[in-house]
Amino acid sequence: MKRQIFFCCALTLAALFGGCIKNDLPYPVVEIVFEAVEAEGLDGAADINLAQRTVTLPLLETTDIRNVEISQATITEGGSSSVAFPGTFDLRTPLYTTLSLYQDYAWSIVATQTIDRYFNVRKQVGTALIDPANRTATAYVSRNTDLRNIEVTALKLGPAEITAYSPQIEGATSFESVRLVDVTAHGRTEQWRLFVEQTDVAVRITQCDAWARIAWLAADGVRDTEMGFRYRKKGEEKWITAPDVEVDGGTFHTRLSGLQPETQYEVQAYSDADESGIQEFITEAEPTLPNSGFETWSTIGEILYPYAADAAPAERFWATGNPGSMTLNKLVTTNEKDPRPGSEGIYCACLRSQYVAVLGVGKFGAGNLFTGRYAKTQGTDGYVDFGQPFTGRPTALRGWVKYNRGKIDHIKNVPAGLKLSKGDPDQGIIYIALGTWTAAEYGGTEQSPVGVFTGDVKTFFDSKGKDVVAYGELVMSSSIDQWQEFTIRLDYTSTSIRPTHLMIVCSASRYGDYFTGSSDSEMWVDDFELVYE
Questions:
Q1: Whole-number pLDDT of residue 326
Q2: Which domains does the chain have, with CATH numbers?
Q3: Is 60 exceeded by the pLDDT of residue 3?
Q4: CB proximity list for 163: less than 8 A, separation 6 or greater
Q5: What's the average model confidence in pLDDT over 270-280?
Q6: What does the buried/exposed string (b/e) look like for 67-88 if buried means 16 or more CB atoms within 10 Å of the residue's CB?
Q7: What pLDDT sits at residue 327?
Q8: Phi, psi of 55 (to 5 degrees)
Q9: Cβ contact 461:5 at 8 Å
């Protein structure tokens, strides 16, 4: 599981020294996890999700999903599995196993597999509709096409190179009625039904997702024709031909750029002389980051906060782990009069990792800054709620950073599959995520929905989680002595889903949430801004 999140530990001595000694000692709590899983025929490494206790195996399309050979499964030392490995398994459904030591933990191993299927004919409109569950493939042609003389140009319904078809569907043939074809792979034969149907629509827009300065367009047209888009501001007469249109058979798409925020546009698709209807869209606004230069700070009690003292809860955009570290009179995040060159402000944020303790008892805390709120301290751990309401769709986060990279001198835990030792170089991280998280599912609040408890790795943020709409990160693997501008590009999982919340996290120690890092690591950040082009 890809893990990037921070946290500064929250510390209280009462939990460390309270309680009384008992004669009946309970078993220790040791969570058993899969540390690594290897299998034959994978398309990349296995993904281990500690929070959901799942292992996902991405299979090549040529791998027989009914006979997946798991060659090695490494679990936490001392643990055992109810399923014996290595072995061969049918992964059309999840494989369930229980990992045990002092306690039992239910895990599942699932497989994902994408088989590229297509059915192409001459002068096809759009792309064929492929239905693997019902084993049908339907291609569409214009109304005046003769169904008695359809030329099949490409057919693929099974894994590449290992699939046989009977009869072979090649060249011109009649599709006045359904055609049947046997598809054989891995020694098993399935019968598919092929259809060609006429449609009155020669060209149509199938996607129009407008962001602030970008719009994503897609359309169906007639294969082997000239296809593209025209667009203009509403009210203008002159059309602009969209550049860089990519054609894939009977479909085409493009990414418009250089648009104006909060502006109404018109778009039309064409396929030779055929034209779609005119469709309208309005570009989004460009929301900005509050206190993006980190100029506003206040001290409430003895705790330093990155917002005004009189700010309403909804206006407290940034937060730190200072409320936790100050239980032992230390601040892991401060403001310094060291702005980046050319800044209009006088402050930057300084994040210092350190061991926070009294009488030698405590925990390592990473210097940090994040969008959300510090919720509370429990024992030597803390609760943090990440995220702030946000519906914009930026393409990147830009800002300025300096970094001093120390050597790891504190290790408590590390992510599964990662090996770290004292003396290894630390890493800093800045990441940005957009998502549709809810408090009901992630345990936070309506304003900051992603709740994390540092004592439970299952609550840690997963950048590959199902509700992540976009993600980008900057990992600092070396010191940065002078202020340096950075740009973190966002990788979107969908161009159509609008996010509900924004998460930005900066940590001087990448694995600070595991209480692992260097007490010499420091990060300075200044003048963040969201990019929309």
A1: 87
A2: 29-113 (2.60.40.2340), 126-199 (2.60.40.2340), 213-282 (2.60.40.10), 298-531 (2.60.120.890)
A3: no
A4: 156, 157, 183, 184, 185
A5: 96
A6: ebebeebebeeebeeeeebeee
A7: 80
A8: -120, 125
A9: yes
